[in-house]
Specification:
203 residues
Length: 203
Amino acid sequence: MPRPEIHPTGTMLDAARDLLLGKGARSATVEAIAEVSGAPTGSIYHRFGSRDELIARLWIRAVYRSQASFLAAMEREDPRGAAIAAAASILDFCEEHPEDAQLLAAFRREDLIRAMPEGPLSDELEALNRPLERAVVQLARRLYGSRSRAALDRTLLVTFDLPYGAARRYLIAGTPLPSGLRSDLIRAVEAIVDAPLRGTRDT
C-alpha cells in the first residue's frame, strides 16, 4: 500500500490558485506557494520543476474538471436535451467550483503554451480541447444532420459561447451567478436550437 503524500499535490495547486485569484499572478511565487501550502520549496520544485509548470498543471486540472460534466451531458441520447444539458453544465461548474471557474476566466491557454518549452506538458495543453471539439462535431450532426460551418457554429454557440458569456462577467468580478440566470439561459438555448438553420451543406 503506497504511503500517503506528506504534502499532497492538490494542496500545492490549491495554494497557487488562492494566491493567483486573491493577489494576482505575481504573488504566486514558489516561495509564497510553499508558505501557504506548508510544503517545502524543494518539494514543489521536485513535483513540478518550475513555477510555470505548476501554473499550467493547475489550469489543466481546472479544465479537466470543467470538461467532465460537459462531455457527459453531450452524450445524452436526445440531441436537443444534450445541448441544453451541456450549456447548463457550465453554469453548474461555475457554482460548484467557483475558484476553478474564475481561474479559467482569468488565464488563456495560448499564454500558458507560450510559457512552456516543447515537451509533454506543451503537447497536453495543445490537445486539451480536442475532446470538446469532437463532441461539438458529433452533436452538430445529431442536431442538424450536418457538420457544416453553420451547424458547428450554432452548436458551439448554444453549448459553450452562450453559457460562458453569461457567466464570465460574474466570474471576473468574483460574484455569485444570479438566481435566474440558469432559467434564462435554458430558454435562450431552446430558442436557438429550435430555430431554422441555413447553410447546412457539409464542408
